Amino acid sequence: MATIDKNSVGIAATRSVRVVQADAPLELSCGKSLGPIDVAYETYGELNDAGDNAILICHALSGDAHAAGYHSSEETKAGWWDNMIGPGKGIDTNKYFVICSNFLGGCSGTTGPSSINPATSRPYGLEFPIITIGDMVKVQKLLLDKLEIRQLLAVIGGSIGGMQVLQWAIEYPDFVRAAIPIATTTHLGAQSVAFDAVGRNAILADADFAGGQYHGGKGPDRGLAIARMIGHITYLSEQGMREKFGRELRSAAEYSYDFNSEFAVETYLDYQGRSFVERFDANSYLYITKASDYFDPAKDYGSLRQAFAEVRSRFLVVSFASDWLFTPAQSREIVDALVANRKDVSFCNIDSPYGHDAFLLELDVLGAFIAGFLTATHRPGLGAGEKKPTDSAAAATPIENAFRTRVDYELIESLIEPGSTVLDIGCGDGELLARLTEDKDIKPEGIELSQKLVSACVARGLPIIQHDIEDGLAGYADKNFDYVILSQTVQTVRNPQKVFDELLRVGKKVVVSFPNFAHWRSRAHLFFGGKAPVTEQLPFGWHDSPNIHFLSLRDFDEFCRGLAVTVEKKIPLSKRRLRPVRFMPNLFAEQAVYVTSRSQAFGLKETYRREAEDG
Amino acid sequence: MATIDKNSVGIAATRSVRVVQADAPLELSCGKSLGPIDVAYETYGELNDAGDNAILICHALSGDAHAAGYHSSEETKAGWWDNMIGPGKGIDTNKYFVICSNFLGGCSGTTGPSSINPATSRPYGLEFPIITIGDMVKVQKLLLDKLEIRQLLAVIGGSIGGMQVLQWAIEYPDFVRAAIPIATTTHLGAQSVAFDAVGRNAILADADFAGGQYHGGKGPDRGLAIARMIGHITYLSEQGMREKFGRELRSAAEYSYDFNSEFAVETYLDYQGRSFVERFDANSYLYITKASDYFDPAKDYGSLRQAFAEVRSRFLVVSFASDWLFTPAQSREIVDALVANRKDVSFCNIDSPYGHDAFLLELDVLGAFIAGFLTATHRPGLGAGEKKPTDSAAAATPIENAFRTRVDYELIESLIEPGSTVLDIGCGDGELLARLTEDKDIKPEGIELSQKLVSACVARGLPIIQHDIEDGLAGYADKNFDYVILSQTVQTVRNPQKVFDELLRVGKKVVVSFPNFAHWRSRAHLFFGGKAPVTEQLPFGWHDSPNIHFLSLRDFDEFCRGLAVTVEKKIPLSKRRLRPVRFMPNLFAEQAVYVTSRSQAFGLKETYRREAEDG
Q1: Predicted local distance difference test score (pLDDT) of residue A523
Q2: H or E element: which one contains B225?
Q3: The pTM is what?
């Protein structure tokens, strides 16, 4: 027997409950009704007395209710997300009550096309109505009602599971406190629809499909295997496949010169196809992929922005860099629509070679994100406290630390009005935002490039989006924030003017700090030494500096004049004192903090002018 | 009837010739023999008296001998590469004699699995021997022998056609003057093998396949259509499909809630599958994809470098940025192996959204590259002359022009020994290399990032590789060049030390020129003006400068000392005079040219030292 380790939820049983009776069928999106509906589900952990620790897990295409633990002590293979769910794991069953159910249309206990149609007393087959992600979520809600769950701390799922998460947040805004859609999309693109269609074609073209009534017969095993093989290629990345299989031959060193599978990748796919056929129903494959093709809240609500207009949950959106089925760009569409609605959203695009499958494999990184986000949602106070400053400092690189000059932080804090909305660009581990939240009760948002620092911000409970400021801020409305902060960063971006224009567009006021390149030490360095300045404030050689632009207070003044920017405050600073440098600041200030703004009218006029020039 | 325009080759007939007789069969790679072999081919243009203008076109999976023109005045669809081949087109039939043949194993006139097996008097089916790209090329060579072609000016082909091009260059080094492999690879990666395998599975799993003896029967149309659909998805890019189809529905505004094709991309694939089945043979699909899976000259020769060791043709390697079937990285492997063998190779990764299919669609850009390369190969003198300097100057951006300060070119030219091998990094339109080739009889190679400038160099007959120097020079051997030139570029790269290390590795001498940041005007600008320098030599503002590092002569001296670089010559210059600045050069020189070097031993020692530190 398998030894069940102490981090496992242990023996778990799949239970079944009838959520829709035959005499009161459920009305589906397609207009037809369905009943009875039974749901297979498992639970792990305990619902607490407050009833505020319930988490729903939504599975993907080939998953089932068995997300964690073992069905018996003889079983060697644990549930499909066992490394994520358990005592002390990313979704900690010591803290949370976790529910996972097989979705409607599935073939692992919940009513689906292989269930008996009461009207004919034989399996539904193609008589099963077309279902949608919305229908799946309705059935999950009925299950939670049966279990007397009044609110979910979180809904979490990857791929098609992530679609259900989005549907939950949209349809039941008051029921869901946190939504964690992973490696998913609000709509399949043409390429993914195409792959799904070819897979369904392979099943439908199989002579043994028998119009869906193959039960008792041979069944469309060859077609289903082909569909699975196609799917499997899309779940892996090209890099992942190359590294795993390359051009390795299964057994011989030389080609066999026949049509048998001989490359290792071929026999791998054969195995995937074969084993899938043993555990999955071809009709379910048709129905689930169709539901996935149909998912499109933007179509349902007029636009994605309108779809998310009423959501109330916090969001943690996660994508994986090498996922080409549901791409990082598709996750960004979710984030941008939430941002446009000013919702509480965090986003990370996790660096991984495992493609779409990464949501089943990158469990350490993903688990840390989920754990931090759940804690910060469940116990906000604790969340911020649990993360010690040393943890986040450890995550910062030396260069990042070099910029974290405390004196400009202190000064910036003094400039922010209490209760403001604040966006911090390159917010690092979120220290400044956390201080401002604590001291000034601001509504914080952060943008940061480093995955580690994003994770630290998530654990702090800060809404944080992983993003390169050079790519602009298209998702944000004009004058979205009272303050935008760009601390010690303007000199490191490739296109300062483009970045600055964007900040002035989305922020009523933009607070900028930068090192003064015309400080007397720098001037002397070049003038007398004939060398590019290396000083305490600019501590890098000419060739290894992250600073790729050099500017003085005077340069920035002129820059602002040229861009029709109002300089509301200009505070030249030394490195260590909060007191402004008043005497010849361009010579004696080591850094400066500016508060700038530009009227909304400028942006419009400027746009018109540019269009006129183009025309 | 269709109006045949004057740029068409007009009416073209497919002819057939027996190249292998039944009694003298051809020995194939798999060890079996095959005969008789008939070849279907077309020709366009005229072979000239010198016999030096013949070009062979190799087609891809679903192509045939009918590459250009029309079979009759009633035909509305021209040959598959008609926009590339014709009077005045990229492959100009006024200048060249163009041959295209259906390859061995095909189903459009050349012997293949649907031909009659003389041993059984029925179609071969699966009794046809497994063939390779090498076998295809052997048969093409037999055709050219029949046509009394003694040498090819060029072999050109995309995709599987590109594999044949590579095979030609490797197997018949003296027969091919120029090889133009487009959107191809020396070996399919695991992902592409997987897609091929699934496609073959779909055919083999079709109940109507009948072990390959389906002739006269229904045939595996459904399987072949599925294979074609899978293939078609891989020929387009995700972006291309998104832009072409999006989530558009074929006819209705609302979902049909059934399993009929309803998304536009589904009906498009249905059409592609259906029309393919009408014109293509399922067995040929099996044999051709297998030949493509097997293609792997690195396996045949021990390594890719060894495979290319004896090639003698000039190479123009072309990839397309959005091609994810045969990726730009795979084309780079070809380029790197040729570079390692010091072959004459040019490379461009054409920016296109059309994925793998771009070789059939991006005909303007591709045609210009091919035309320039063919001219430069066919009439080298003319090639250089045909391209007027104004053309290439027009291709350069203002910033590029700003760097082309003639005085450092003149000086650099004076430093190069006649007959040297020279690599020019960021060579622009190739002016310096062309001058050096003309005046000093050097062996030139260039590296350039801009597609337009690469095209200008190709037309000049210069070996030019599109490449970002920041990515290093891994393909080049140590001390590969007598001189490497880095003119007015060191201050614009992100990581000057890494770049400089690479140049010193591949070049015996490295010639560097850069603007002097410590010129008195710059110093004065900062010292007295308190602003980042904007001078004639550094004509950009702090925020819009392409210069992201600032260095003086003294900075560079120290930099060289720190990296154990020998400064062989140091020539401070003013902007306009060739005479060196001798008095206080760090103050009075506007720019400088250095000749530097580093002994090979340093690199080794350095490597050992770094490894020791890592350990």
Answers
A1: 75
A2: helix B221-235
A3: 0.91
Q: % helix / strand / coil in chain B, to the nearest 5?
A: 40, 20, 40
Q: Give me the residue label for tokens 């917010």.
A: A427
Q: Which residues of B touch A223 (CB under 8 A)?
A: 205
Does B205-292 match B391-614 in CATH topology? no
For chain B positions 194-233, those within 8 Å of chain A (CB to CB) are 194-195, 197-198, 200-202, 204-207, 222-223, 225-226, 229-230, 233
Q: Which one-letter amino acid corresponds to residue B100?
A: C
Q: How far apart are CA B417 and CA B433, in angstroms?
A: 13
Q: How far apart are CA A183 and CA A234, in angstroms?
A: 13
Task: Tell me if chain A has a CB within 8 Å of the CB of B551.
Answer: yes
Confidence of residue A604 (pLDDT cuts 50, 70, 90): very low
More confident residue, A521 or A413: A413
User: CA–CA separation, A454 vs A464, rounded Å?
Assistant: 6
Instruction: Convert the pLDDT of each residue in A123-150 to its tens digit.
Output: 999 999 999 999 999 999 999 999 999 9
Quick one: tokens of B181?
């492999």
Fold of B391-614: Rossmann fold (3.40.50)
Task: Establish, for the pair of chains A and B, how many residue pairs have beta carbons separated by less than 8 Å.
Answer: 244
SS3 of residue B387 by DSSP: coil
CATH 1.10.1740.110 correct for A204-292: yes
Q: Does B198 contact A269 at a Cβ distance shorter than 8 Å? A: yes
Q: Please give the Cα distance from B603 to B501 (Å, whole number).
A: 9
Please judge whether B551 and A530 are an interchain contact, meaning their C-beta atoms are less than 8 angstroms apart.
Answer: no
Catalytic residue selected from A108, A159, A322, A513: A159
Residues of B known to be catalytic = 159, 323, 356
Separation between Cα atoms, residue B458 and residue B454, nearest integer Å: 6
Report ipTM (2 d.p.): 0.90
Q: Distance between CA atoms of A397 and B248, rounded to whole angstroms? A: 46
User: Which residue(s) pair with A426 in the sheet?
Assistant: none
Torsional class of A534: left (φ above 0), alpha (ψ -120 to 50), beta (otherwise)? beta
DSSP element (H, E) containing B368: helix B363-378
For residue A145, count CB atoms less than 10 angstroms from its CB and return exposed for 0-12, middle for 13-18, buried for 19 or more: exposed
Query: Could you give the CA distance from residue A186 to residue A206 in angstroms, rounded to a whole number?
Result: 31
Output Rg (C-alpha) for chain A, integer angstroms.
28
Kindly indicate whether the domain formed by A15-187+296-371 is annotated with CATH number 3.40.50.1820: yes
Angle at B265 between CA B260 and CA B269, to 5 degrees: 80
CATH number given to B205-292: 1.10.1740.110
**In the 8-state DSSP scheme, what is residue B214?**
-
Average pLDDT of span A23-30: 97
Q: Which CATH superfamily is domain B15-189+296-371 in?
A: Alpha/Beta hydrolase fold, catalytic domain (3.40.50.1820)
Give the domain A384-614 fold: Rossmann fold (3.40.50)
- Phi and psi at B532, nearest 5°, equal -60, 140
Q: Could you report the per-residue pLDDT of B234-263, keeping only the tens digit for each? A: 999 999 999 999 999 988 889 999 999 999
Locate the domains of chain A by residue range.
Answer: 15-187+296-371, 204-292, 384-614
CB contact under 8 A, B201 and A226: yes
